[in-house]
Design a protein that fits this description.
This protein is an alpha/beta fold and 317 residues long. The chain has 2 domains: 48 residues; 252 residues, 2-enoyl-CoA Hydratase, Chain A, domain 1 (Alpha-Beta Complex). Helix content is 49%, strand content 15%. It has 14 helices and 8 strands. Strands 1, 2, 3, 4, 5, 6, 7 and 8 form an 8-stranded mixed beta sheet that branches. Strand 2 and strand 3 form a beta hairpin. Helix 4 crosses helix 13. The chain is globular and about 70 Å long. This is Acetyl-coenzyme A carboxylase carboxyl transferase subunit alpha. Pathway: Lipid metabolism; malonyl-CoA biosynthesis; malonyl-CoA from acetyl-CoA: step 1/1. It is found in: Cytoplasm.
Length: 317
């Protein structure tokens, strides 16, 4: 059973009650099927009500769920014959970004994504999904390779942000991110990015200059974490819930502002409840996205990406 979140407490208590009655029925040969059935109906209604009316801070918690599927989970479900490629050919390999070549429904594609861990050991190995400069340079190397061979690029965004440590700054963190932004803007092959968890700051944007940007329903995409924003604005990180509301970081807000193209519905309770079913939802959106570019030439692909970002924002004189 996945770890429950604070807003899920009524659901958890009702599930526990149902389990207790089922165990009692089994142990005492008593028929409580009517009562159990009514509770299950009530549970279904309660889940629908709670998960359909989530606050921004609730979505932040779901996006950070330790069992939430990662880039590698989706790679295993969506792509055939995936071969991971390593290294930036300059400094080394960064485990916080994975990338390689595979087939999406018989079509060759390049896949790149942030990768966090699901336990302490893996999180240390992956630096908690926060890339160093060599991670972004590896991503760019794979993007340019994809451009050379005419492969579409699929990016999975899931990071709190680029690593802000001393070593990362010494090796040119800001330059590496900026270089990705510039180069991605001019790629001659289609780029489709999907925010599958947290999309934080420039660390996320370095994989986000795409023709299409999609988001899982309970993901977030922002210039800073709610805690960071609260610390800067109000000198109090405990006001992160209010910051999450004010920042408009959820998929519905971003779709309304035309920053993202499509919201991918999540299975009830979040993607971690059924990763395989969630991957099927992503597959449908990916297929439709890639089909959009089937008849588009290189100039049209670049122009499409340019127009997408030109339309973001509100201008006044």
């Amino acid at each position: 059973m996945s770890k429950s979140l604070a807003f899920e407490e009524p659901i958890v208590k009702l599930r526990e009650k149902i389990n207790e009655l089922e165990e009692f029925t089994s142990a005492n040969d008593v028929d409580l099927s009517d009562e159990i059935g009514k509770l299950k109906t009530r549970l279904s209604n309660l889940e629908t009500e709670i998960y359909s009316n989530m606050e921004p801070w609730d979505r932040v918690q779901v996006a950070r769920h330790p069992a939430r599927p990662t880039t590698k989970d989706y790679i295993a479900e969506l792509f055939e014959d995936f071969m991971e490629l390593h290294g930036d050919r300059t400094f080394g390999d960064d485990a916080a970004i994975v990338g390689g070549i595979g087939f999406f429904e018989t079509k060759p594609v390049t896949v790149i994504g942030h990768q966090r861990g699901k336990d302490t050991k893996e999180n240390v190995k992956r630096n908690f999904g926060m890339p160093h400069p060599e991670g972004y340079r590896k991503a760019l190397r794979l993007m340019k390779q994809a451009e050379k061979f005419g492969r579409p690029i699929i990016c999975f965004i899931d990071t709190k942000g680029a690593y802000p440590g001393k070593a990362a700054e010494e090796r040119g963190q800001s330059e590496a991110i900026a270089r990705n932004l510039v180069e991605m803007a001019g790629l001659k092959v289609p780029v489709v990015s999907i925010v599958i968890g947290e999309g934080g700051s420039g660390g996320a944007l370095a994989l986000g200059v795409a023709n299409h940007i999609h988001m899982l329903e309970h993901s977030t995409y922002s210039v800073i974490s709610p805690e960071g924003a609260a610390s800067i604005l109000w000198k109090d990180s405990s006001l992160s819930k209010q910051a999450a509301e004010a920042m408009k970081i959820t998929a519905p807000h971003l779709k309304e502002m035309k920053i993202i193209d499509e919201i991918i519905p999540e299975v009830l309770g979040g993607a971690h409840r059924d990763p395989k079913a969630q991957a099927l939802q992503i597959r449908e959106v990916l297929r439709a996205s890639l089909d959009t570019f089937r008849e588009m030439d290189e100039g049209g692909i670049i122009d499409d990406r340019y127009k997408k970002f030109r339309k973001i924002g509100v201008f006044s004189e």
